Amino acid sequence: MKCGIVGLPNVGKSTLFNSLSSAKAQSANYPFCTIEPNLGTVQVPDPRLEVLERFVNPQRVVPAVVEIVDIAGLVKGASKGEGLGNQFLANIRECQAIIHVLRCFDNDNITHVEGSIDPIRDKEIIDTELQFKDLETVEKRFEKVNKAAKTGDKEAKLVADVFEKTLKHLEEGKNARQLKWNDAEQEIFDDLQLLTAKPVLYVCNVDEASVKTGNKHVESVKQAVQNEDAQIIMLAAQIEADIMELESYEERQMFLDELELDEPGVNRLIRAAYDLLHLQTYFTAGEKEIRAWTIRKGDTAPQAAGVIHSDFEKGFIRAEVIHFSDYEKYGSESKAREAGKLSVEGKEYVVQDGDVMHFRFNV
Predict the structure, then answer these.
(1) Whether 92 contacts 323, CB under 8 Å
(2) Nearest-5° angle of CA 359, CA 288, CA 358?
(3) pLDDT tens, position by position, 257-299
(4) What is the C-alpha to C-alpha distance for residues 230 and 175, in angstroms, rounded to an integer?
(5) What does each C-alpha distance from 315 to 5, 320, 343, 361 come to in angstroms?
(6) Going by C-beta distance under 8 Å and a sequence separation of 6 or more, which residues neighbour residue 5?
(7) What contacts 24+ positions apart, CB below 8 Å, involve 164-173?
(8) What is the pLDDT of residue 151?
(9) Which of 206, 239, 261, 277 has the lowest CB atom count within 10 Å?
(10) Secondary structure of the chain as H, E, C letters
(11) Ranges in the chain, pLDDT < 50
């Protein structure tokens, strides 16, 4: 699963990416510093792994990961190929979700491509470019299917209706993710793979003084996106970069304590991105390894098994399941089993976030 970090040039995308990833993207005070998209694999912070490690004492612990792509800064006219427009839009298309960084701090030493600080204007510039590209996509498809719809083809008529409604919505300057559909319509809509239909997480990049309470820029963003199906988090990318420069956990903790912060902002961001993609975690736990596995919310036991290996899904017989809270309460698999907290589940079982699972399968 892949999230793309987007934003205008010089809003703090690469600084944030560096904090998220061990990959060091170049970060500088001029536009288009990021040209090739940088890709980082980021571990999902999960304190449950520490609990399981304490009980099981395995040889290694493997956390879940999300891929984060730092995409080149966009400018007006990108949908027509201005700047690095075409490349930028192609990079977004490959991502399942968008992390949209908005500059919500004043600093005369860091130039802004538009000459002033206005996160709503910045958001609208990117929204408009993505909407233009989506309009182009839908117009081409609508033209084809509308001819068939006019001949009385019922299926083509349904498709044409969905496309037409989407066109009108985009022409009003709205993002496609705001549209609501029934199941049949949703399937048609999803096939368009629109850029503005992707789930979005707005990251308000603030200064140190605003990191706990926010500021007028953050409030304006909250107001602007209240009708969108989107999440907002607030952090200071420079603080996150400073935290990552510290070598030991103790030093990082002292730094956080000084700022009166519970944890690095990037931890919240990664968890929010994970949630944005409708993902959850289950665990396998043994002496060799404890591992967090990523699945979609609503996945069944065979689908969860298939994440480990496709043969596990094909030959699935049953799953032995202990809910994490029970594992934590009883302290081991054997004690949870003795207490009757290990359940045997079949193919219909919907996996819960934090389940500790063991699969039986036959190849």
Answers:
(1) no
(2) 10
(3) 998 888 888 888 888 888 888 899 999 999 999 999 999 999 9
(4) 11
(5) 39, 15, 20, 5
(6) 13, 16, 17, 68, 69, 70, 71, 99, 101
(7) 166/138, 166/192, 166/194, 167/135, 167/138, 167/139, 167/142, 170/131, 170/134, 170/135, 170/138, 170/196, 171/135, 173/127, 173/128, 173/131
(8) 87
(9) 261
(10) CEEEEECCCCCCHHHHHHHHCCCCCCCCCCCCCCCCCEEEEEECCCHHHHHHHHHHCCCEEECCEEEEEECCCCCCCHHHCCCCHHHHHHHHHCCCEEEEEEECCCCCCCCCCCCCCCHHHHHHHHHHHHHHHHHHHHHHHHHHHHHHHHCCCHHHHHHHHHHHHHHHHHHCCCCHHHCCCCHHHHHHHHCCCCHHHCCEEEEEECCHHHCCCCCHHHHHHHHHCCCCCEEEEEECHHHHHHHHHCCCHHHHHHHHHHCCCCCCHHHHHHHHHHHHCCEEEEEEECCCEEEEEEEECCCEHHHHHHHHCHHHHHCEEEEEEECHHHHHHHCCHHHHHHCCCCEEECCCCECCCCCEEEEEECC
(11) 23-35, 83-85
Residue where the block lists tokens 């944030």: 16
CA 273 – CA 264 distance, rounded (Å): 15
Residue 33: its pLDDT value, please? 38
Q: What was the pLDDT predicted at 226? A: 86
Helices 265-276 and 13-20: crossing angle, nearest 10°?
Answer: 90
69 CB neighbour count, 10 Å cutoff: 20
Q: 10 Å Cβ neighbour count for 112? A: 18
Quote the CA–CA distance of 44 and 273 in Å, as a whole number.
Answer: 10
How many angstroms separate the CA atoms of 245 and 239, rounded? Answer: 10
User: Residue 45 has what pLDDT?
Assistant: 86
